[in-house]
Amino acid sequence: MSVCDGTKKYQITAISDALTDIIAEVSDELLQKLDLPKGNSIALNEENLKKLANIVSTNKPRIAPGGSPTNVIYGASNLGLKCAFIGCVGCDDFGYDYINNLRENDIDTYVSIKRGNSGLCYTLISPDGQRTFGLDFGVAKQVYEYEILHSLIKDSDFLHFSAYEFRGDNPINVATRHATDIARKAGTRISFDLGDSLVVKSSREQIEEFFSEKINILFANEDEAKALCNGSDNYRQMLRYADMVVIKLGSKGALAITPDGETRVSAYKVEDVKDTNGAGDNFQAGFFYGLYKKLSLETCLRIGNFLAANIIRRIGAQSQVKISGIEFII
């Protein structure tokens, strides 16, 4: 599948909630006390937020820029793709650190800074490596339609974002839709990640309305795909939404579905799973790299699986390792 003709400045521009990950390892009992659904993400109420802040302060957390589309371009930049980021941070240390971290990773930032607190994502890692997210959005969703640069979208091969950006009734919802309108008119391809099965269920109306016009690539894990398909595992029906559907199957590998057929590859075996956070995002980064290099779908899936297998061996959703020519390594 040919993706890039070499005339555009960016391979991927991502729109994302600019959420700083505050990562802590916790017990299953603690998750139950916090009343957080394991493996999912929910907005925090005041009571949970206060409890979490206390817990995290005693657990020596790791701190890194997060948000699903952000993780994707972070990984893609490590592979040599040129990426850009659209989002909003607050006028605090978290916000400035977020921007600086992306710039240090060679990602161009088109970020608005607003009065208020930057968005935070409390990422809780349970003993089995599963990740659970508690969210304090701050100003992260205050990206407005007028802040989307037409020239940036037009100069990108792909516009990438997720269902997370559709959550709730916020300015970023409208801004993201506006960006997709620009992309469609400019011939910029659109990729979309379903993000979270709970978000698929809670924002189904917005997601299906968005799918009234087909997109180019739809990413989902197994739970998200089943949620969209009303419990069915007949994933081919998702082709009514996108030209290509990519299903991340965890330990069972990955599957790419096109009108011409299906390509499936097995996963790399990982014995020492530390943290599943970012596995799907790093998979997508590898898949995009394969498309950019015009590699076969099988190779695109294998690169994605390789990166996912490596990220879950460590705590955190991002790797600091730059890799050149990954297709010759796997």
Beta content: 25-35%
Give the tally of β-strands: 14
* Radius of gyration using CA atoms only: 18 Å
In the CATH hierarchy, the architecture is 3-Layer(aba) Sandwich
* CATH topology annotation: UDP-N-acetylmuramoyl-L-alanine:D-glutamate ligase
Integer average pLDDT: 87
Q: What does the overall shape look like? A: globular
Strand order of the largest sheet: 6-5-1-9-10-11-12-13-14
Number of helices: 11
Biggest sheet character: 9 strands, mixed
- The ordered H/E elements are EEHEHEHEHEEEHEHEHHEHEEEHH
Q: How many domains?
A: 1
The CATH class, by name, is: Alpha Beta
Identify the CATH homologous superfamily. Ribokinase
Structural class comes to alpha/beta
The percent of residues in helical segments reads 25-40%
Terminal-residue CA separation:
20 Å
Poorly predicted sequence stretches spanning 5 or more consecutive residues: none
What can you see in these coordinates?
The protein is an alpha/beta fold and 330 residues long. It has a single domain, classed as UDP-N-acetylmuramoyl-L-alanine:D-glutamate ligase, CATH 3.40.1190.20. Helices cover 34% and strands 26% of the residues. The chain has 11 helices and 14 strands. The chain has helices spanning 28-34, 46-57, 68-78, 93-104, 150-154, 171-186, 197-202, 204-210, 222-228, 279-292, 297-311; strands at 10-15, 19-25, 41-43, 62-66, 83-90, 107-114, 119-125, 131-136, 156-162, 189-193, 215-221, 242-248, 254-258, 261-265. The strands form 2 sheets. Strands 6-5-1-9-10-11-12-13-14 form a 9-stranded mixed β-sheet, with helices on both faces. Strands 3-8-7-2-4 form a 5-stranded mixed β-sheet. Helix 10 (279-292) packs antiparallel against helix 11 (297-311). It is globular. The mean pLDDT is 87.
